[in-house]
Amino acid sequence: MDKNNILETCKKYGDDLVKFTQELVKIRSYSDEEGEMVEAVLNKMKELGYDEAFVDSTGNVVGKIGTGEKIIMFDSHLDTVQVPNPEDWTVPPFEAKIVDNKLYGRGSVDMKSGLAASVYAAAIAKECDLLQGKTIYVTGSVCEEFCDGVNIKMFFEEYNLKPDYVVICEPSDNIITLGHKGKAQILITTHGVSAHGSAPEKGINAVYEMAEIIQRIEAKNKELFEKGNPHGTMVLSDINCVSASLNAVPSECSVYIDRRMVLGETEEDVKKEMDAIIEGKRATWQIGTLRHTSWKGAKLVYEPIHAPWKIDRNHELTLACDKSYEETFGSKPEKYDFWDFGTNAVTPVSMGIPTIGFGPGEYKLAHMVDEHCDIDKIKDACKFYTYLINNL
Questions:
Q1: CA separation (Å) from 112 to 17, 92, 325, 371, 382?
Q2: How far is it, in rounded angstroms, from Cα 143 to Cα 81?
Q3: Domain ranges of the chain
Q4: Domain spanning 3-180+308-391: which CATH class is it, in words?
Q5: What's the rounded Cα separation, in Å, for the pair 187 and 110?
Q6: Which stretches within the chain are classed as H helix?
Q7: CA-to-CA distance for 100 and 112, rounded, in angstroms?
Q8: I want to staple 388 with a disulfide (CB 3.0 to 4.6 A). Which of 6, 130, 271, 324 is the partner?
Q9: Whole-model pTM?
Q10: Which residues contact 85 (CB under 8 A, 6 or more apart)?
Q11: Residue 195 CA: distances (Å) to CA of 53, 70, 251, 254
């Protein structure tokens, strides 16, 4: 392998990579509305000479290069969160303008820059003849913002696929990321008895039943915080009640809990916490199952409870990333990261597939007004992915 050849080829495609990223940012691709993005990525894969480029029954766009036994997959999600306040943006969120060498727009960080970099990296690897014994899959997955991992789980099942390695191209500011926190989303419901508002003593107010539970949730989060760093979190993220009318005692009240887990905490720990939080109250809890329909009509059912994970520093995938980092940036990694948010990694990790994270953009800018990604970091991510294909 000629390193200069890789560098020169990456440089040759640099401007096209940036233009493609701009094209993607200009496309509004809210969750369940990714069809136009799929078409743009599919066309680019075909243009770049992918051996196969197709859309699965879920609506994910998939590119394949190579025929080797070793399967390496790069995954990015196509969807973005919405823009409720476009007037607050300094640069309009779908114009994809470059200001001071930074690409602005919704999805520029989360995560169209990483997607574009991986699409080009696989094509560059093919042009540089780096694919002996390897098959590269590049996926653009749907509805990740609501359904972590369900998208690629359905892809794996449909095509009976189990990659040897998975790279999650979520934003990490081009820092090798070894894992992320676990997550449990819980629905707690209190059960009351309806009565007329003029005679509340004849009923049981489900909202009042919930009041103490809410205090317990807040106390549990404080308890977790006081354990020091790293620590888990628990937050009430939604609340509603059911009442026959505005003149009636509510018969039901529900809250949605977002619980983030650090290494060492387990799903069983969370279940015990939930039992304690509702103890003595007219209440039940369950995993807060979410259901969506993809842009292609596929039914997505998401069970949001995942343990935290971290790949070993001496795993062969990590070591290959170390080498690729040094070849890309000219020095060894000074640090590694650990995401505090969830990703599609939950599916390959649950399958025992070695998984790691790396992508351009500062993840703290995701979902924010004036989201933006440094142009040079998009190009560097493409180089890193190309070197990684060679080193695995």
A1: 11, 17, 21, 12, 13
A2: 10
A3: 3-180+308-391, 182-293
A4: alpha beta
A5: 27
A6: 3-12, 14-26, 35-47, 113-127, 150-159, 206-225, 267-278, 316-329, 346-350, 375-391
A7: 19
A8: 324
A9: 0.94
A10: 369
A11: 60, 65, 8, 18
Q: How far apart are CA 225 and CA 119, in angstroms?
A: 40
d(CA 72, CA 389): 8
* Dist. CA 79–CA 63, nearest whole Å: 17
Crossing angle of helices 3-12 and 113-127, in 10° steps, is 130
Residue with tokens 């970099």: 117
What's the full length of the chain, in residues?
392
Active site residues: 79, 144
Return the amino acid letter for 343. Answer: T
**What are the φ/ψ torsions at residue 165 (nearest 5 degrees)?**
-145, 145
Which of 18, 71, 274, 177 is closest to 26 using CA atoms? 18
For the chain, what is the radius of gyration of the CA atoms? Answer: 23
Is the separation of the CB atoms in 248 and 196 below 8 Å? yes
Displacement of CA 316 from its chain's centroid (Å):
24
**Per-residue tokens: 248:** 């009636």
Q: Answer yes or no: CATH 3.30.70.360 is held by domain 182-293.
A: yes
User: Tens of pLDDT along the chain (392 residues)?
Assistant: 577 789 999 999 999 999 999 999 999 999 999 999 999 999 999 999 999 999 999 999 999 999 999 999 999 999 999 999 999 999 999 999 999 999 999 999 999 999 999 999 999 999 999 999 999 999 999 999 999 999 999 999 999 999 999 999 999 999 999 999 999 999 999 999 999 999 999 999 999 999 999 999 999 999 999 999 999 999 999 999 999 999 999 999 999 999 999 999 999 999 999 999 999 999 999 999 999 999 999 999 999 999 999 999 999 999 999 999 999 999 999 999 999 999 999 999 999 999 999 999 999 999 999 999 999 999 999 999 999 999 99
